[in-house]
């Protein structure tokens, strides 16, 4: 059991809106020039795709600049260090402007109009915690859904609602989730240890907050959150009170977050729900008790408690002048109100004025531009309406120990090392180590509060990998994550960004990136996936990876009905590999994947008994229970479809429900919509129930922009709906998809259905098939 302590380590990662308005195609070169200019402005060392200085790691993420501020021991220092790195960034941008390059950087969290499908990104918070974040899920959720000071304000389109924060709009889960999709309020997507092999300190990576320009806003957000976490961990009275109080929120945490996030609807007065203040006070009192239990509390804690209290008191009395002088959300509301009034518009009639939404979106972007003296925020500060500063400004290099921020965390030792070894290009810096490429050695900095670097040690083979390649590998993992969840269009865009990144860094695209591109081309309805694999595997020996790749793309590149004949050579290759497995030896997971691909193709071609044999072999294979949930769920769903075709409806439904539970648990919503829900619809005895399953699948596929999968769902709906008007609408949409996707334009089965549309929608059998759904 970790003892109560007053140790804090806080940091923020700022994903920047990065644009070159004068020439959008020059963004990547501009990012390179910016990083080089920044390197020359303060002592720095290489850091993979960017540089590390005493204030932050600044690097090229895919398509944008990211600023990851160092570990600080107080929210006020964090605010000061964030300003220092932004001052350096502004100087670098000025240098580029002098050379004729206009680079725009902003710490807002969305692009364009604020709506459900707009591009979003985050300002991620990091807290050192003494327990795994999953251990305090239930206790932190009431705090997070009422932490409206974590937002920077926004105007939702087209409703015209004024919201406290942007990020809640894109939250899909209460806990778990990922960092780029299916985001969670209490995110446990990044749960690595904070100090290397030590098991008692973790990084809590919170993705709920917006980017702030107000220093007070940033400080109160980090101070209150850090103290709330400590109170949860070390104040038993708070945990007991939360257990009772949590009932006021019900079970829908995402719904509660989004409801409390709305501060004003068109025509209504600004309002802060009393539950927000009530809940926050519960945590504030717990934080006071925690602070009182410390023998020697850090000086900043009492100030942070006072700032938290003052904010809640201003909420309670709705003190708009006080709030708008200190919190970004309320500063924007007052400014936007003045803009609307000057344009002869009001909040009430805003939904009818599309042009005003566009203007407010541009003003929002300007507010967050931290490298421009003409930004909305800077002009408000110059006008004297803001009172947001929490400490005296310190210019970079003017610290008592130049370029070394005054923190007790390991960032101090790292900053001194960087300053004393600047311009040594053989050294590469990361958060917990320094790598010497020339001598292939590494020193570590595992302890978050280390006062000096560790000894030099010979680097392992894994540690010797080029840092840029490690960075690319992380982003390729995110492509695979999106692919696994059925986000094929999004994964394709991400892969394209990585390709541009590799070109800009002068490195070759890894082989697995080419494989992923082939998979994605097949799943997004293109017809060139097989030729891509041919280029990758030409001259290589056949392995399980080869067989599963070809089986995968043959299965999906065929549109609605894969060509079994063209897949036969790969089926034979897979059988040879299966024969080579020793008797009694467990099959590799790739073998199960191969069997599932083949079985699915057999099912679509009406050969249910052969598919059943193949799938039952999977179920008896030694690796079935140990394979990934994604593969296990797909195998189970395919087995359910086989039972349906063979007339075993009850067993089919049982298997499909099992698959559905796993897919929902692990957020494999793309597979749920493509494989399992349509199969449930085909099993339903009542047409209404079948159409409800298809409606759910269609909703997911529309959100994911899965046009290939959506085509199948729409065809099934047309088969079942018995509504001429609706069938005509469906045919129009399917025809549009067919014109967009080569795999559909070349699909003979789709051509047959469209040619015999009236027979299809009337439920007649086509093409001599016994399956009423024609293998769809």
Report on this model:
By secondary structure, the protein is of the alpha+beta class. Among the domains are: 112-323, no CATH class; 706-776, no CATH class. The protein contains 30 helices and 18 strands.
Short description:
The protein is an alpha+beta fold and 776 residues long. The strands form 5 sheets. The protein has a 7-stranded antiparallel β-sheet. The protein has a 4-stranded antiparallel β-sheet with strand order 15-16-17-18, with no helix packed on it. A 3-stranded antiparallel β-sheet has the order 9-10-14.
Helix content: 40-55%
Number of helices, counting only DSSP H or I runs of 4 residues or more: 30
As a percent range, the share of strand residues is 5-15%
Widest sheet: strand ordering = 3-4-5-6-1-8-13
Radius of gyration: 28 Å
The counted number of beta strands is 18
- Could you say which overall geometry the principal axes of the C-alpha atoms support? globular
Structural class: alpha+beta
Uncertain residue segments = none
Mean of residue pLDDT? 90
Distance between the termini: 56 Å
Taking the sheet with the most strands, its summary is: 7 strands, antiparallel
